[in-house]
């Protein structure tokens, strides 16, 4: 949906871990998105049919999801017809889309090529976030990283 619409984004978080071989389940999908005007418009148009709404906000709160809203904000935790989506203009321990993109790799995620944090960068951003659930995931991700090093895949 977002990938096929030309939106420039980077997969991070639990689904990125899954793309690298993690067995951990996650309840949402997290992206770092490029914040130029064209991409904000593409992102808003791609998500609009799926009724994005601020996760945790009371029902009926006026919320217009469009390029202007994205421009005025930075990080958005949304619920939608597709499920929960976190859109991050900047990620702790990694920076912006422009900072991260040169360090990313394309991975196949559910049959779609998606720009994704590398395994070492995913570990670094989880460590920088410092949340208990991230620390729990780091051990498995480090084991995957060690296994790839041993087989020459990293």
In words, what does this structure look like?
The chain is globular and about 50 Å long. 38% of the residues lie in helices and 23% in strands. The longest helix has 20 residues, at 132-151. By secondary structure, the chain is α+β, with helices and mostly antiparallel strands.
Q: Mean of the pLDDT scores?
A: 93
Residue share in β-strands:
15-25%
How does the overall form come out from the CA principal axes?
A: globular
Largest sheet: 5 strands, mixed
Work out the helix count.
6
End-to-end separation in angstroms reads: 29 Å
Structural class: alpha+beta
Strand count: 7
Sheet with the most strands: spatial strand order: 1-2-5-4-3
Topology:
Elements: E1 9-12, H1 13-19, E2 28-33, H2 37-47, E3 53-54, H3 67-72, E4 75-80, E5 83-88, H4 97-100, E6 104-109, E7 112-117, H5 119-129, H6 132-151
Parallel strand pairs: 2-5
Antiparallel strand pairs: 1-2, 3-4, 4-5, 6-7
Helix pairs in contact: 5-6
Features:
about 150 residues, globular, alpha+beta, five-stranded mixed sheet
The gist of it:
The chain is built from six helices and seven strands.
């Amino acid at each position: 949906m977002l990938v096929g619409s030309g939106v420039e984004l980077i997969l991070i978080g639990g689904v990125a871990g899954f793309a690298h071989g993690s067995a951990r389940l996650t309840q949402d999908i997290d992206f770092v998105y490029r914040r130029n005007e064209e991409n904000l418009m593409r992102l808003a148009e791609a998500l609009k049919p799926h009724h994005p709404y601020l996760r945790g906000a009371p029902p009926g709160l006026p919320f217009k999801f469009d390029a202007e809203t994205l421009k005025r904000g930075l990080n958005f935790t949304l619920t939608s017809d597709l499920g929960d989506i976190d859109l991050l203009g900047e990620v702790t321990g990694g920076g912006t889309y422009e900072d991260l993109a040169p360090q990313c790799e394309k991975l196949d995620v559910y049959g779609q090529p998606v720009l994704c944090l590398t395994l070492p960068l995913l570990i670094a951003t989880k460590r920088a976030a410092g949340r208990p659930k991230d620390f729990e995931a780091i051990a498995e991700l480090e084991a995957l990283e060690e296994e790839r090093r041993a087989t020459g895949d990293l």
